[in-house]
Design goal:
Length: 284
């Protein structure tokens, strides 16, 4: 197993990426750390597409609201380095602190457009502003040929893909399927917050997606009825949103549902907010 080289400053990361690009293609996998098999799947896919894979580990304070979990977000840099190397990343950028990405006097931000408005954009004001700003900086530092993101954060993927296209950043944004536990729960670093009892309840998000797909497969085409089936499966959780939207512009479904229509879920399991999503026509 090749050891992943750790760099802690933006300057060193830029230099290491420049050297990697001189030797061949470069794939980027941005993460907030506490890696799991979903992150590793992105790294492995990156290794298929590029000669070098660079992963980043940075809990970006700009994308957290004042009442969110920034202060307790899980971290394990040693474990992350090991998992990055196991999956095929040869370079890891873990900034020494927020000041490495946002030095004193920092004042430039990326404001996303309409794709960032609904769902998490509505519930978490400023979240996608923070996401776009940090990702744009990582794209600028690395000048990677491609960057890989998981579809669990489908709205984030759509927002980043639009940003990269609109600003001609030159990095191809690639989405990859959600990686799940055997019982269907989407892998997330925040799953570590769950107690054993909460973990058993969290599978309700997967069950809700299954209920929506079952209703669609049975011939239901009313978005209202499909969402109703999903909400019923979320009984016992505090629902943040349960919306059926088109998969491109994320607009509310105004016509009959079709196989590409996508259900978006966010719910609290205890104090932990989890998200999930999926197309109605995908296999459950």
């Amino acid at each position: 197993m090749i050891q992943a080289s750790l760099v802690r400053t933006a300057r060193d990361f830029r230099r290491a990426c420049q050297e990697a690009r001189q030797a061949g293609t470069l794939a980027l996998v941005p993460t907030m750390g506490f890696l799991h098999a979903g992150h590793q799947s992105l790294i492995r896919e990156g290794a298929k597409r590029a000669k070098t894979v660079a992963a980043t580990v940075f809990v970006n304070p700009m994308q957290f609201g004042p009442a969110e979990d920034l202060s307790r977000y899980p971290s394990d840099l040693d474990g992350d380095l090991r998992k990055c190397a196991e999956a095929g990343a040869s370079l890891v950028f873990a900034p020494e602190g927020p000041g490495e990405m946002y030095p004193a006097g920092y004042q430039t931000y990326i404001e996303p457009g309409a794709l960032a408005g609904p769902l998490d954009g509505e519930r978490r004001p400023g979240h996608f502003r923070g996401v776009c700003t940090v990702v744009a900086k990582l794209f600028a530092l690395s000048r990677a040929d491609c960057a890989l993101f998981g579809e669990k954060d489908y709205q984030q993927l759509a927002v980043i893909r639009r940003m990269a296209a609109d600003l001609d950043l030159g990095t191809e944004v690639i989405g990859r399927p959600i990686v799940r536990e055997p019982d269907g729960l989407a892998l997330s670093s925040r799953n570590s917050y769950l107690s054993a009892e909460e973990r058993s309840k969290a599978v309700a998000l997967w069950n809700a997606l299954g209920a929506a797909r079952a209703a669609f497969a049975a011939g239901e085409r009313s978005g209202q009825q499909i969402v109703g089936a999903a909400r019923a499966a979320l009984d016992g959780l505090r629902i943040d949103y349960c919306d059926l939207r088109d998969p491109v512009e994320l607009l509310p479904l105004e016509q009959r549902a079709d196989p590409t229509s996508r259900l978006f879920l966010a719910a609290f399991v205890g104090k932990t907010r989890l998200i999930d999503n999926g197309a109605l026509g995908e296999a459950g």
